[in-house]
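Model the whole thing, not chain by chain.
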Amino acid sequence: MLERIKQSETKKLEAYLRSRSDDLSYEVLSKVQLILSDVRQHGDEAIIRYTKAFDGIELTSLRVSDEALNEWAAAADEAFKEAMTKAKDNIIAFHEAQKQNNYLQQQSLGICLGQRVLPLERVGVYVPGGRAQYPSSVLMNVLPAKIAGVKRIVMITPPSKSGQLDPKIAYAAQLAGVDEVYLAGGAQGIAALAYGSETIPRVDKIVGPGNIYVAAAKKLVYGTVDIDMIAGPSEILVIADEGARADYTAADLLSQAEHDPMASAILVTTSSKLADQVCEELKRQSEQLPKQAIIAESLKAYGKLILCETLADCVEVANVIAPEHLELMVADPWALLGLVRNAGSVFLGYYTCESVGDYWGGTNHVLPTNGTARFASALSVDSFVKRSSFLYYSKEAIEAYGSKIVTLAESENLQAHANAVKVRM
Amino acid sequence: MLERIKQSETKKLEAYLRSRSDDLSYEVLSKVQLILSDVRQHGDEAIIRYTKAFDGIELTSLRVSDEALNEWAAAADEAFKEAMTKAKDNIIAFHEAQKQNNYLQQQSLGICLGQRVLPLERVGVYVPGGRAQYPSSVLMNVLPAKIAGVKRIVMITPPSKSGQLDPKIAYAAQLAGVDEVYLAGGAQGIAALAYGSETIPRVDKIVGPGNIYVAAAKKLVYGTVDIDMIAGPSEILVIADEGARADYTAADLLSQAEHDPMASAILVTTSSKLADQVCEELKRQSEQLPKQAIIAESLKAYGKLILCETLADCVEVANVIAPEHLELMVADPWALLGLVRNAGSVFLGYYTCESVGDYWGGTNHVLPTNGTARFASALSVDSFVKRSSFLYYSKEAIEAYGSKIVTLAESENLQAHANAVKVRM
């Protein structure tokens, strides 16, 4: 079930995986650009018009009332609610530690400088419509913003035929503390968040996944507002030693493969025996899974197996691939962690399957995909703050150091910069 | 010299200022896309070919030797070198405080989770060619990366007719600790950093300003590598009370206006007397400045004056504009700082002109421009790290909490996710 490649082919594999994320076509971008301009100009009316055209739904109001949200949320299953509530606690506990402090430094002559960490004021969370509904993502996107101190968190989601939200999504929105919910999806929804409409407030940052039109719209409004990232196809890389169980290993690879035909599952191991067993297990287990068609496609195209001499070699493979999820299914995972330079999130030991992090443990599941873990990070409290520096120089300080500043400004031929110092000396 | 507008027109002014940054045209983007593909495919040969075509220079080698860099740097002026060396110390002192720690949390049943902060491995710094050379920007871009722990910092800059680097740039590169310097500019240089060529290494992040082709190339390679930001036209907003001196105030407004006809200088004050005096001073001082033509253009289009009732009102104007630079030229600037929500960097009191921060104080001068201070931050040590989470669950922990994880995975119809937990229970 997994194509076997050589360790020396790792860089080729990296390039192949990266080719999964197509550039957005000019056709999509220019279509989306028109929608953005239209909503910017015509506000609510345009949003309602596009919703009718694309979704076949006639909206009379964009805003979801608190009463409606309460009612829908109440319909969610009790076991689900209980698990979500505890998952929320775990996510908060993990993310609280990410809060950064202001700092202030004092120097001679009264000089004082520092940095303040300020929350963004308004954040928009996009929640996709359709059959696949991910309430866990609502927690993952909203809770770090709450902890950062964002005062107004706005959720938008495409309306459904029934006019109602999925009860689980409604519950997650309430549990996470979303302040307002609007029925607007696609590029028109993103436009509303970026520019504001009569009903929907303009925000400072837009987070959350969406289809290709949402992705294109986010890319185009980036700069007017901030965005989280353009999520690409995701991957898991499992490093397993001879002590790893084949059934666990296979199950974890399958949990990634079921997401998407473009998802990638890679096994890197020192044990050729384990590799064989995992391939058998993949076959056996996937036959019992409802998404076996997606899994088959994903494994065929992007399921790979690499045998390495040593565990350190295995980690080097991971560092080149820079996977979104990295499992260290080895006897002593802590001995390897320090060698890992590029991975979105690392799952340690035989018992920590990726699902623990996806739903429960507290780490964020919005992770850098498709090799971007080389330079990007999980969604975090940092994603919802900005840092603003400040500087105070006294009269004495400017007199003491002014001539140096003049030297530097004049070396760049910026006489007005120099003059601002000179007039004070 | 400054057009007077009402406080109630602040939002209109914000929109007007934002309209300064044009979208990159499809023409530029598609031209740049071709260059990127060409360099990706043909490497050094394509870079050399474009350098000949665009700059009329025949390169025999892309790499600047250490000997050449030493020789050019030695030619820099002594007073400049001394001032740069002290500025470097100040920049390091300020940025050291931005280093973030790893963290680790322990819970019952042996559960362990946390976050590691890892430096990017390779960073590319773009330094524009042409007559305007900014050695201070080399320090501002490179030093935070050094402090973050980036091991390989690569500088690229377009070759000049003489074949030499400006001595000040060469000195700044050495002083900051740039590891390698290459002669490559424009979109072809950015392509080399994004994809790598035979000579120039592929990096994880590209920082530094450039012309429109550089900006377009950075936008297009974003995702393959990280980028700092697409710098837009910059601005200063000065809040002044009746105790502020008109000559200081005018000098500071002019220090922004001299940058660029698109730069904006805005005075917000409670004193109509000061406003009149500042306008006179602007006229008087600008007549003595070498860049008076640029200044006249900039002030005419984007020089504004807003009179407010109170200083708190003045700060509200600043919060809407979200200026790159905000000066609080008031008797008690610390009383206002807490009200400031949106500003790239804040300069406190009558003596702290923006130039202190541009060159000397230690805060970074690479700041969010054109209203993006609403959601973006100065370049910092944070810009050169990534955060990677980790999670460990014991056998006992998965047995204790597994059923909750299964509930959540099944609520999203992700059976393979649920199964990865089930096989372990």
